[in-house]
Inverse folding.
């Protein structure tokens, strides 16, 4: 008796520890620590799906143990209908219920897919900040075309103002993501994709490449720092005043495969490296030169 | 060009893991060398054993050149089990690495880790799952439709040997050179020559090409067999559900393997001939590869899952002593799934940057598949209802499938929603999801199938205790191994990551590792079960051939069945054909007359093409010109030579059929019928007392 009660106590505390760990884990980052409306909307959409899916799956979870117990071989009291193979009512139910649930979820998916389309500008009273992102082996280059500054493995975002990331890759396929702000988008060589996000809370958020691209993949992380608009201007101006230029030689060095220990900052940018990289990877092989889509 | 290039191509000493481990000693390299060593030792051990027991002749005549669909099926399953061993060990290693690598580089180099996940995926899909289900179909389907063999027995042997050749290439890559690091999907341009100049992707290309051609041929063979070889009276709607799922899987194989063959060959052109289909520069576009690959890849999921659905239908109805509930519903649901499976491939890359329109359509199409799948789950539940349920090992696997598969279905619908997919794409959530579908939806089904049909194939039952031990390891292991990955995925942990920079992943990684160990223990228990059963086989014998009170025709013949399956092709008058025969008292009836039976002669063409295919793949991987020419010529030559062979069948005289059959019928008459409560006792000699 005592043994069993100790066991329950222990298992209960273990359970508490595990769930605590889970919660604290979620509290730190990921979807359950959304720091912007996009991630929040994605989270609530996820919960809505789970809720509706339980409508079709709970009956199974409840009925299965009951059926297994009641119709076990040894229970001779339960009725046995070896040739029973059809019931119009049940048939209507088991086709009907999933159809209803999928219709609801389908409608919701349609709505949310449009609402949360990563290409759709986020409505706000101010125009979005545009940031060009180049995926490299194994680092991320961020260019602020308007301010004329750049950084590697660090991106600064103004809180409360939408950001439009324009993405490309200087090497293989990569995928750009800041989990707490939501969304992710492929960065593809020779192509430009877009991702619109907004941070509503100041903080430092982890960003990463999610698409395996070789030895340095695990270390291809960056920091997204969401700061107030004033601080944002100040930081960018500071970079412009003190940091070195991102020139052709530096760019060439960056494009070589390597892992960086700490972020780099550049006070100015020579030329238009983003569109140059897109164009370079598009050119040749019988294809005529095509200007980058939607040049800045 | 170096000396010896003409002879060995790009091969050199560095290709051997032993040499690499010697030159750059590290845990990672030692593990590589150890694995290579194991393969060599195992291969040598098999060779020595065969020679010692003078079994070469028996192996060649009795198995390798045999065109008997039953033997080919068994050989497929053997390949699957060998490859499963390897891929499971890799899984455990990866779990260890990911546990050890929290805030630490761990003990495997990133390069080695990426080879592990690439081979794990490639092996599990192409050389475990595909051979396993092809083997089970090969064994069971012709028996269930009352046929003597498949329509094209030689083609069947060629498919088997090409699959074996692909599997051999993957195994050789452990000993000579290195495998690809680009994952099982091998996305270029990473796998292109610019970013992966080694031989790894070439191994992947040729192994997968061989396997995809083999599967296309198998698909054709099975579909034609079902259309043309059914016993008289076996209309399509009287076929056991397993045959329906086989038919749908075969049609999917015919249409879905082609894009893969094309994609892998286009990748080969990029790598070998300087083409630019998928390169990062010169106008190449990797998303074309992604489209082609998943145009194969999504139907592939249903190629893998549908046969298991058929197995569960057989198992659940047999062990609840009931006819299948909603047979027609299940058939239509299967057909719906097969059609819809071609309309959803784009959900593998919602994050490509296409319009919301495209994403919404593919997302909704994906959710639609949930309807027929949900119907199926409830059909099985209703089959259990009002039954007399026996909790045997195959039944336990089927029940665990029902519960677990629904969990996977929920997460599948989550992933089908583009807005949510944006957050969990490429994460461990995705990894958890597809293991959640494929372990219950394929592997549990195949294990249930082996437990269910083993007595038919070998004439004795498997040990039930070890079957149940194995079941509990698989069931608990699955939840421990994959539920933490869902949580980790939502926390932002990505797949294919060899080290973690977040210390708090540790506890969940530990649970997942324990789960992986338990899954491995489940596999070892299956091997123990096999050993124990073979040792006690006399106690488990079921010569009459119907140990489970089966419903379909495969149970109507002896265990193991004669080469020609049925002395007299049964006449089918209803669904659940054998069950009805037992009811009407015409099972085990003595035929009035016997006829000669023509069966295909053995042929060496299959093994020759397989060997040449492996040679060709190896030669292309290492750029060994003469061997490639030789391999290709042998394949073409063998096909041409075969076309001159006139006498491809041999006649089994009626007298010999009669003698064998009457002896079996006498044994049936002499064996007492056994009620279901004694199913697991030694008194069960395979003569069932029908439940109803």
């Amino acid at each position: 008796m005592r043994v069993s009660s100790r066991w329950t106590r222990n298992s209960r505390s273990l359970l508490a520890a595990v769930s605590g760990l889970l919660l604290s884990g979620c509290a730190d980052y990921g979807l359950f620590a959304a720091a912007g409306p996009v991630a929040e909307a994605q989270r609530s959409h996820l919960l809505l799906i789970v809720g509706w899916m339980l409508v079709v799956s709970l009956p199974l979870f409840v009925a299965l143990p009951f059926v297994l117990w009641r119709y076990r071989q040894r229970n001779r009291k339960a009725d046995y209908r070896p040739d029973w193979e059809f019931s119009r009512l049940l048939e209507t139910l088991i086709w009907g219920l999933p159809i209803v649930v999928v219709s609801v979820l389908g409608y919701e998916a349609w709505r949310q897919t449009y609402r949360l389309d990563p290409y759709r500008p986020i409505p706000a009273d101010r125009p979005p900040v545009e940031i060009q992102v180049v995926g490299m082996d194994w680092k991320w280059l961020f260019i602020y075309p308007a301010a004329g500054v750049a950084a590697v493995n660090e991106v600064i975002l103004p809180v409360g103002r939408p950001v439009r990331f324009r993405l490309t890759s200087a090497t293989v396929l990569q995928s750009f993501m800041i989990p707490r702000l939501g969304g992710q988008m492929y960065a593809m060589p020779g192509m430009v994709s877009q991702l619109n996000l907004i941070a509503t809370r100041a903080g430092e958020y982890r960003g990463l490449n999610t698409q395996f691209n070789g030895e340095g993949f695990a270390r291809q992380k960056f920091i997204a720092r969401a700061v107030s608009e004033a601080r944002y201007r100040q930081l960018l101006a500071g970079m412009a005043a003190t940091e070195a230029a991102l020139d052709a030689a530096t760019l060439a060095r960056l494009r070589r495969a390597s892992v960086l220990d700490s972020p780099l900052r550049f006070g100015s940018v020579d030329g238009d490296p983003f569109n140059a990289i897109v164009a370079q990877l598009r050119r040749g092989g019988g294809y005529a030169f095509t200007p980058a889509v939607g040049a800045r | 060009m170096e000396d010896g290039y003409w002879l060995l191509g790009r091969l050199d000493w560095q290709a051997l893991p032993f040499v690499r481990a010697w030159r750059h000693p590290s845990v990672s390299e030692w593990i590589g060398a150890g694995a290579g060593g194991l393969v060599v030792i195992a291969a040598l051990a098999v060779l020595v054993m065969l020679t010692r027991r003078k079994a070469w002749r028996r192996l060649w005549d009795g198995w390798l050149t045999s065109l008997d669909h039953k033997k080919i099926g068994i050989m497929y399953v053997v390949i699957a089990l060998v490859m499963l061993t390897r891929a499971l060990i890799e899984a455990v290693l990866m779990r260890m690495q990911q546990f050890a690598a929290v805030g630490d580089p761990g003990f495997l180099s990133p390069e080695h880790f990426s080879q592990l996940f690439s081979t794990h995926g490639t092996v599990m899909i192409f050389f475990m799952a595909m051979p396993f289900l092809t083997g089970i179909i090969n064994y069971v389907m012709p028996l269930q439709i009352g046929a003597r063999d498949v329509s094209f027995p030689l083609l069947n042997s060629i498919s088997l040997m090409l699959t074996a050749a692909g599997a051999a290439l993957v195994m050789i890559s452990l000993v000579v050179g290195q495998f690809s690091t680009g994952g099982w999907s091998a996305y270029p341009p990473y796998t292109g020559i610019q970013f992966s100049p080694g031989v790894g992707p070439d191994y992947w290309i040729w192994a997968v090409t061989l396997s995809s051609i083999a599967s296309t041929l198998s698909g054709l063979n099975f579909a034609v067999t079902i259309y043309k070889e059914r016993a008289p009276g076996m209309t399509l709607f009287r076929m056991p559900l397993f045959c329906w799922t086989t038919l749908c899987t075969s049609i999917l194989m015919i249409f879905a393997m082609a894009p893969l063959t094309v994609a892998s060959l286009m990748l080969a052109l990029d790598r070998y001939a300087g083409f630019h289909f998928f390169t990062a520069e010169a106008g190449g576009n990797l998303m074309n590869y992604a489209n082609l690959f998943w145009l194969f890849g999504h139907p592939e999921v249903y190629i893998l899952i549908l046969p298991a659905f058929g197995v569960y239908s057989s198992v659940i109805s047999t062990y609840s002593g009931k006819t299948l509930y909603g047979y027609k519903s299940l058939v239509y649901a299967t057909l719906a799934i097969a059609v819809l499976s071609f309309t959803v491939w784009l959900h593998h890359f919602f994050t490509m940057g296409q319009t919301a329109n495209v994403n919404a359509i593919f997302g909704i199409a994906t959710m639609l598949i949930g309807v027929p799948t949900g119907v199926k789950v409830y059909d099985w539940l209703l089959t259990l209802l009002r039954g007399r349920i026996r909790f045997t090992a195959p039944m336990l696997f089927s029940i665990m499938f029902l519960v677990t598969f629904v969990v996977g279905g929920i997460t599948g619908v989550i992933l089908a929603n583009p807005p949510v997919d944006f957050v969990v794409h490429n994460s461990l959530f995705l990894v958890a999801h597809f293991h959640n579908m494929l372990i219950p939806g394929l592997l549990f089904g195949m294990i249930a199938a082996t437990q269910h049909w083993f007595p038919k194939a070998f004439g004795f039952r498997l040990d039930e205790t070890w079957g149940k031990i194995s079941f509990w390891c698989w069931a608990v292991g699955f939840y421990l191994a994959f539920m933490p990955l869902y949580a980790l995925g939502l926390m932002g942990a990505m797949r294919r990551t060899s080290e973690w920079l977040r210390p708090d992943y540790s506890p969940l990684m530990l649970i997942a590792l324990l789960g992986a160990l338990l899954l491995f223990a489940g596999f070892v228990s299956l091997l123990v079960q096999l050993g124990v059963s073979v040792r006690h086989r006399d106690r488990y014998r079921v010569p009459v051939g119907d140990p489970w009170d089966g419903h379909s025709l495969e149970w109507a013949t002896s265990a193991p069945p004669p080469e020609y399956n049925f002395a007299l092709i049964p006449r089918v008058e209803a669904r659940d054909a054998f069950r009805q025969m037992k009811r009407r008292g015409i099972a085990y009836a003595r035929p009035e007359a016997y006829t000669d039976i023509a069966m295909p002669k053995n042929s060496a063409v299959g093994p020759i093409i397989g060997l040449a295919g492996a040679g060709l793949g190896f030669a292309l991987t290492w750029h060994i010109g003469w061997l490639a020419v030789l391999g290709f010529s042998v394949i073409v030559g063998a096909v041409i030579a075969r076309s001159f062979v006139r006498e491809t069948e041999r006649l089994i005289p009626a007298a010999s059929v009669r003698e064998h059959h009457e002896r079996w019928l006498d044994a049936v008459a002499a064996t007492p019928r056994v009620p279901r409560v004694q199913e697991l006792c030694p008194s069960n000699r395979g003569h069932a007392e029908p439940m109803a």
Q: What stands out?
A: The longest strand of chain B covers residues 597-600. Chain B touches chain A through 99 residues (CB under 8 Å). The two ends of chain B are 76 Å apart (CA to CA).
